[in-house]
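Hello,

Our lab assistant flagged a job as stuck in the queue for most of the afternoon. It eventually completed. Since we weren't sure the result was trustworthy after the delay, we are filing this so someone can double-check. Below is the sequence as submitted and the structure that was eventually returned. Let us know if re-running is recommended.
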Amino acid sequence: MLRVMAVDDEASALSELVYLLRQNERIEHVTTAQDGLAALHTIVAMMGAGERLDGAFLDIRLPGLDGFELARVIAGFPARPRLVFVTAHDCAVRAFELEAVDYVLKPVRPDRLAEAVRRLSSAVAAATVEEKDTDVIPVELGGRTKFVQRQAVWYAEAHGDYVRLHTVDGTYLVRMPLAALERRWGGSGFVRAHRSTLVNARHVSELRFDGGRMVLQVGTEVLPVSRRHTREVRDQLVRRFRVAAPPAGAM
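-- returned structure --
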């Protein structure tokens, strides 16, 4: 099921597009925006909150930031939504130069939109396989956005409604509860070591017991493991070692 955004500055056209998208069995949720800047802000906010956005259906003639300009900005995002242009003008060449999945001419025909949704679904499925380990978190830093890759994070530390991501390059504060980050990254080698700490198992270089308590060497940090999470952490690290270790006798 796809989560998509519909962007059009004409209220009637946007309403019709949203209606048709919601009739499609492949569509799970539709978010809307009526100009390019609003769409961009929503996309960045969704990425920051860990919300999935699979695709965007964009009008081209939008106030402030038009569809092509928005597409060029989105192209710089590591985990960007796939694009479908919805326009009254033939834009095939420019659309595919911007790696759009499809373009649909107005007035929108239900069958043609359904084909675009099918193509989007196929593109998203293929991208999921290719990008399974390239998830990123956008971090706002003094008017610019830095994308912190999941595999670069040593561990995440809870700070109320925020998490602090610790990497070799420094730390970054992100507005996201640790529980939400655990749901997002729990299947990608991250394990809860403490009620306030989520650890990337690939960066654990040592496990030892100190005063009867388990501690982990993660990057340059030594982190305690709570008694509640000791068995889970140990089992996860053992499983990871068994997967990574070569077969006996292999060279």
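-- support follow-up --
The delay was a queue issue, not a problem with the job. The result is valid. Helices lie at 11-23, 36-48, 67-74, 92-97, 110-130, 178-185, 230-244. Confidence is low (pLDDT under 50) at residues 242-251.
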